[in-house]
Write a structure and sequence with these properties.
By secondary structure, the chain is an alpha+beta fold. The chain has a single domain, classed as Gcn5-related N-acetyltransferase (GNAT) (Aminopeptidase). It has five helices and eight strands, in the order E-E-H-H-E-E-E-H-E-H-E-E-H. It has an eight-stranded mixed beta sheet with strand order 1-2-3-4-5-6-8-7, with helices on both faces. The longest helix is centred in the middle third of the chain and has 15 residues. The radius of gyration is 16 Å and the shape is globular. It comes from Limimaricola litoreus.
């Protein structure tokens, strides 16, 4: 993903709704709701970066957005407090987006992450993306299970792909084609 930031209104993150959730653009104020999770070494174990050390640092991260990248806060209808987020960044070759997600522990185990990620995937395919992929640590069993439930297929393993706060880590690449999604929808 590019580091180029944008403020182009046409690049705004559109609100999405699912049966139980409202996904809206993630904003800097969401740092307050998500800092406990994103500063926790256990919750951030599978991320390519170390836990955030301050709410101000997380707020600053949430304030920047790269061109072609969207971040949705996961909320419940009628409530604005973020339970997590889903990010999607379009790759330079066009038609391909990478996704990532995080859900606060207190909201896990209810199918909310799957519902939120499915909502974003449906949106991406509806607007013409042909492929969505995710990069996952091989030891992140919960994320692997989520991707597989959504119909993603394991496409490969990149050895020593990430130099993270946990050392060198392999990466599993999971992909989903628009045609796969249409068949399973």
């Amino acid at each position: 993903m590019t580091d180029e930031t944008t403020s182009d209104p046409s690049q705004e993150t559109p609100p999405l709704t699912t049966v139980r959730l409202r996904l809206r653009a993630r904003v800097p104020d969401d740092a307050a709701a998500l800092f406990a999770e994103m500063s926790d070494p256990e919750a951030m174990a599978w991320w390519s970066r170390a836990p955030f050390v301050s709410e101000a640092e997380l707020r600053a991260r949430f304030a920047t957005r790269a061109k072609g990248r969207h971040a949705w806060a996961i909320t419940r209808p009628g409530e604005d407090r973020a339970l997590g987020f889903v990010v999607a960044g379009e790759r330079p070759q066009g038609g391909v987006s990478e996704i990532g997600y995080l859900l606060a522990r207190h909201a896990q185990g209810q199918g909310l992450a799957q519902e939120a990620v499915a909502g974003v995937i449906g949106h991406l395919f509806a607007r013409g993306q042909r492929r969505v992929f995710a990069d996952c640590d091989p030891e992140n069993a919960a994320s692997i299970a989520l991707l597989e439930r959504l119909g993603f297929r394991r496409e490969g393993r990149l050895r020593a792909e990430w130099h993270t706060h946990m050392g060198l880590r392999d990466s599993l690449i999971y992909g989903l084609l628009a045609s796969d999604w249409a068949e399973g929808a």
